[in-house]
Design a protein that fits this description.
By secondary structure, this protein is mostly helical. The chain is built from seven helices and four strands. Helix 4 packs across helix 5. It is rod-shaped and about 90 Å long. The relative contact order is 0.17.
Length: 173
């Protein structure tokens, strides 16, 4: 029985792909748990749009992770005060959360019920004034799973080296 480099590479790649898909799924599950446990706003639509991926970017080089909607960065990194967020994004958020504008009293004593657009403006004004705090739950999830990815790579590499050693013919003198 001779050493078969192609067979070893295929086995290595197949196992790595399987493990990276598993890792992506665990990352997604952990991130969703953190978002829901902390009751982060906008998570229901984000969870629906979230997807795992794994791709080979060059021979035997793989990338695995999560596909997230654009606004994930604002959840993860926050937003500095100073600018209004896009009004359509806030209006869509209000609609998706089925938020009903509540009556409030103006300084002159008159009670009004804002329209959805007015409510979006008020929310945007607060965000522009105060910013949004960072909630780095994705980074926390990645950090918690670092040991898992290290053990995946170490285990697959060790297993592959053992197979190569087994397939190399012994030379007797």
């Amino acid at each position: 029985m001779g050493y078969n480099k192609t067979n070893i590479n295929q086995q290595f790649s197949s196992k790595l792909i399987q493990e990276l898909k598993n890792y992506s799924g665990q990352l997604k599950d952990l991130y969703i748990k953190k978002l829901t446990d902390k009751q982060v706003s906008a998570t229901s639509s984000m969870i629906q749009e979230m997807a795992t991926y794994m791709e080979e970017i060059s021979p035997h080089v793989y990338v695995a992770g999560l596909k997230l909607p654009e606004y994930w960065e604002y959840i993860e990194n926050g937003r500095e005060p100073g600018r209004f967020p896009p009004p359509d994004s806030i209006t869509n958020w209000i609609s998706s959360r089925q938020i009903i504008p509540q009556p409030y009293e103006l300084p002159g004593g008159k009670t009004v019920i804002p329209t959805v657009q007015q409510l979006a403006f008020l929310i945007g004004r607060k965000i522009a004034r105060d910013g949004i705090p960072a909630r780095p739950y994705l980074q926390e999830s990645v950090e918690e799973l670092k040991e898992l990815i290290n053990s995946i790579v170490t285990g697959i590499t060790k297993n592959t080296v053992q197979k190569v050693i087994q397939e190399i013919p012994t030379i007797e003198i």
